[in-house]
Amino acid sequence: MELIFIASLIIVIVLFLITRLTGKNKSRSAGRRGGPVRKSAPPNRKEYRTGVLPAHLGLASDIPLTSIARELESAFQTLFVPQLKRRVLDKYPRMTEAEYDWKVLELKRYLLMSAVMRGVPMFSREVDDIWHEMLMFTREYETFCNSWYGRTVHHAPHGEAAPMPGERAWFDWVYSQLFVPTEYSGQIWRGFFRYPLDAQLLEEVERQSPDKLASSRFNRASMDVSPDAEKTIGLLIGRLKEQIGNAKMADGNEPDGKPVTRNAQHSSGANHSNTSDYTMLATSMVMFSVIDPVGYTEQMEDVLPEEEKKNQASCGSSSCSGTFGDDRSDSRDSGDSGSGSDGGSSGDSGSSGGSSSCSSSSCSSGCGGGGD
């Protein structure tokens, strides 16, 4: 009996040692692999599949930025294909080509938003990582920006990521007006409509003139050189003013004093709980931001599609912003399959804009973009 006990003890010890040695070997082999160590995507993350990317960056049909989007895509195709893809996939070996393609689409959308908005926080670490690699091709990057807009979009780091729920909400609203989302947009940006629009922003939009709002919240320089940008900014200002006015009416605050039923507060999103219609969700976002900012999360929970709730379940962030020309604006949020950024150069490369430290979805990556 004693011999059996000793034998069993020896077997347990041997198995324990084998397990430890196997674990160490796995760690060493992982450390030898090229590129940053990437965490596996959470089980609820959708696998990226090859598909047809939307034309003109998937602009909404009523947004008059088609010519600028076409020029942006043409310049990118000329200056960064295929070298940027090769550089990114070499650095992040677990990233598939399909994942790269969908994330580059979102980077292009972000850059186009920078041509419309004043100071655009970067709310995706993965998109920011690709932007960093793009910046390594210094001359190509400057030529790229100048060819579709006439100025450089500077990558402006802002230190560590910090919570920016108000800025994130503003980003979400503008994004939802400009673009038709792909099936991966919410995943890449870590979920939309998580936060209510800031009360100060709502008051400014309601009370200030379109001209003043164009200077304080949008890229005024774009309006001076691009009629399409001017039309787009005017459209966005008018639309948000209208949505705020409708929300006030639904809350019983109609300008002429006539009572309005509060049942209207759920009408904007009631029929969209199973769709990704971001335009209607954005309307609900404005309404609940106006009439029930404290209960915003619960209100949006009733109208958000399940897919969007899953996207919100895992957040991440980045801490940079992008600015046109020499203007530097504030910004900061990010996260997905865990690609981190570090230096590196290629050919006649060099960084034209700093780095980002990344951390959560109400935070920015510490970097971002935008106009003056």
UniProtKB/TrEMBL annotation:
Residues 337-353 have a biased composition (Gly residues). The chain crosses the membrane at residues 6-23. The keyword Lipid metabolism does not apply. Keywords: Membrane, Transmembrane, Transmembrane helix. Residues 26-47, 248-276, 304-372 are annotated as: Disordered. Residues 325-335 have a biased composition (Basic and acidic residues). This is Uncharacterized protein. Residues 354-365 have a biased composition (Low complexity). It comes from Paenibacillus oceani. Residues 262-276 have a biased composition (Polar residues). The keyword Transmembrane helix applies.
